[in-house]
Amino acid sequence: MDMSMGGMDMSMGNMSMGNGIPSLFTFERMYWAVVGAAVAAFTLVNLYSWCLYQQRLRSTSMTPAKPKAFPFRAMATCTAVVREVANASLPVFAIKSLRIPSPTLGRASIVGANIVVLLVMCFYKLDVSDQWSFENIGYRTGFVTLCQLPLLFLLAGKRNIIAALIGSSYERINWLHRWASRCFLLTATIHMGYWFADWAPYDYIGTKVRTDPITKHGVIAWSILVWITVSSMTPIRGWSYEFFVAQHIVSFAVFIGFVYLHIPVEVKHWVWICVGLFFFDRVVRGFFYLYNNLSILHPAQRKDGTMGKLWALNAELTALPNNTTRVTINNPPISWRPGQHVFLSAHSLAPMQAHPFTISSLPSDGKMEFLIQSQKGGTQKFYRHAERIGMSLPRTNGDLTRGSFTSVAIEGPYGRIRPLQQFDSVVLLAGSSGATYTMPLLRDLVHSWKAMSGQSKSQREKPVTRHVRYVWIVKSGPQLSWFSTQLGQVMEDVARLQNEGHDVSVDISAYITCDDTFTTEQKTLLDAWRSYSTSSSAKHGSVTEVLNSVDDEKYNDYKSEKKFVSKDEKIEVQELDRYSLSEKAEPTSKQSCGPNGTCCCTATIEDEDDDEAIRPACTCNCGAGPSRTESSASSNLNEKPKPKQPFLHPAISVFSGRPACRNVIRKTLEQAYGESAVVVCGPQGLVDDVRTSVVSLSDERAVHKGTGAQGIWLHAEAFGY
Fold it and tell me: Phi and psi for 130 in degrees, rounded to 5?
């Protein structure tokens, strides 16, 4: 990279190269005009979405999420087309067993447009094959490359200005930061390549690199940029995120230093802009970090005794099934919105580490709660510490038993999602710990319904949502204990609202992919509880069908019964924790019958209402006989004692296998009166399946194209950094 070679004075940045070619500085301003126009366009879309949200909540129509006036119908049609194209995925690249994921058309279009703009500016009115134009191209590409540098810093910050304007958050535009960096590397390589091509006929490249400091600094800067780009790719980034962050910051600092030495005085302001953006982000983050964690700034919580003298936050760590740790911060000093996350650090357990975790509770709970699956590094240390504490320490509300609480710090909250109360119907799909994202969204919707039931008719705002479909996919039954209490409370709240005459509904299904014995036990407990209640002349009726391993006779008897749970009857649900489940048959790799210890449960439940849906789809104990738990329950049933409570609320469907996401979403869309939202959080495979299903259904149903089918908004959160 060299922008001052060939004896040309860099003050030429303000000069034209003739033939009506703008000056080099003009190209820099033109690029930022394009970037500014793009940000402004997305900002207007965000503003329109906010106005639409406010209009729907204040509407007196029976179907506020359905556009009626022609301008709104036209806008809905355009939106549906753009969403369908933007969410469509390019074909997956496969090299033997290696599968390279492809981006969506929306992302590919943004990156492609940026590349086109950059290449046009690099070569506008210049002859790329003319040897005598190589020097001019070298200067032009150098200026165009340098002006991109602030964009990388704008897209990288946690307190992200661009994200705030367009209604997003830093983690959702981080992919754009990475691709902008690759575009930066592209133009930097072109810049260096044309200078080398200019010197090559004279065999002058080696001499120039050895003797000229400016050339040497440019080559070093380019080499560091290559390392930064390569080390930011998913395999290296996922291998050790802490190492990636540390080397990334150090590498960029060194890179900026060599760029500063390489460029002339007239354009050094681009470097200072980057330095200013970096420290602005750090100062703002530091301010909020101190506010979150210094107890002196929160006198109310400090007076309650839930904080230390200096450090504000103490967290309780509890071990849960499936190597999961529940971290609970009581009476937190900050508020947050459902779906947001914070960076959590516990330096006494994992020094110098801060990991992003989704907040699985609501502010109204009076606590900030996280569910953290143990992987390696810091999360493993959390789990081991929780295991050591165990259940041996006495727990009372507000009792900070020595050793049971750990000092922690939080940074955030971060994250943003459109308010779901503006949609007629909502589909929430979660894979494993993705429920920490979707569960607060579900509970927030139910809370908004409860708040609506207590409002007077004169109050203007009310949630639009009528129906919520919630699907949770887990490997083993004990994982359901993470939110069994919350799920049961949701069903009871909805039943109470329905009794009051509110037109709201929630359907919840749990899919267990590697623990067929759990569904059998759940069915046995429900049958035993129903039999006990009937003999006691209690009101009872239908429990939602569950998939279970029973013989055909029991299966037919079960299917022939019509049962309804009385809406005013409170259902007790058995509390599951790590210790109560320690004796149960929790699936492990030894019980799995797939290759390399993987699970063989690959059957897909196409239709939950089909009779075949409740037959056993698979088993992971490789033909083992009936579980000990089932025989024990049967024995208790014969003796007619009061049986154990079921693990889940009876209105929650439990299936063994995997859901057909397309069919789940389709059923919700078919009953929707207005725009619907589909939110998914989980492994990349689940996210891709849901995205493909949404695009396919939008095209199949001809959304907002004269068929009456209403719009679909998709929000996807995949695991990973």
Answer: -85, 120
